[in-house]
Design goal:
With about 130 residues, the protein is of the alpha+beta class. The protein has three helices and six strands. A three-stranded antiparallel beta sheet has the order 1-2-5, with no helix packed on it. The protein has a three-stranded antiparallel beta sheet with strand order 4-3-6.
């Protein structure tokens, strides 16, 4: 193999590696697209009620993993079930196999729908547990 051919093959291989590392040209999928609403409902049941100008309730975490940085979406619905208002609230930490309380002020609407918009699974450190 000649020196020119070796250089050409090396350049071609480098270009292919760089193109492969770049991945597809589309933007990566967001976290919300990784879970179907039915799956989130199984992991995070959301019993809630309206109390005056607030919606409050609990986020239950039925998994063995800690959920954190959770954003709940509270949609105000009209009589036909169409979304007319949207309000979000944070739930900082939902321990594994436990629950966390939430409460958010909402605009007046005929009905409401509460759902998990996003969250992060957080690794529970074993050394932190031993410190207790």
């Amino acid at each position: 193999m000649t020196r020119g051919t070796e250089r050409w093959l090396l350049a071609l291989g480098t270009a292919l590696v760089l193109l492969g590392a770049a991945g597809p040209s589309k933007a990566p999928a967001g976290a919300a697209e990784l879970y179907a609403p039915e799956t989130l409902g199984r992991y995070f049941p959301l019993p809630w009620s309206r109390a005056g100008k607030h919606v409050n309730g609990y986020v239950f975490n039925t998994s063995n993993r800690r959920a954190a940085h959770m954003i709940l979406l509270v949609e105000g619905l009209d009589g036909a079930g169409k979304t007319v208002t949207k309000t979000t609230t944070w739930v900082r930490d939902v321990p594994p196999n436990n629950r966390a309380f939430f409460e958010v002020a909402v605009p007046t609407a005929a009905a409401y729908r509460v759902s998990v918009q996003s969250f992060d699974w957080v690794e529970d450190r074993l050394d932190r547990r031993k410190a207790w």
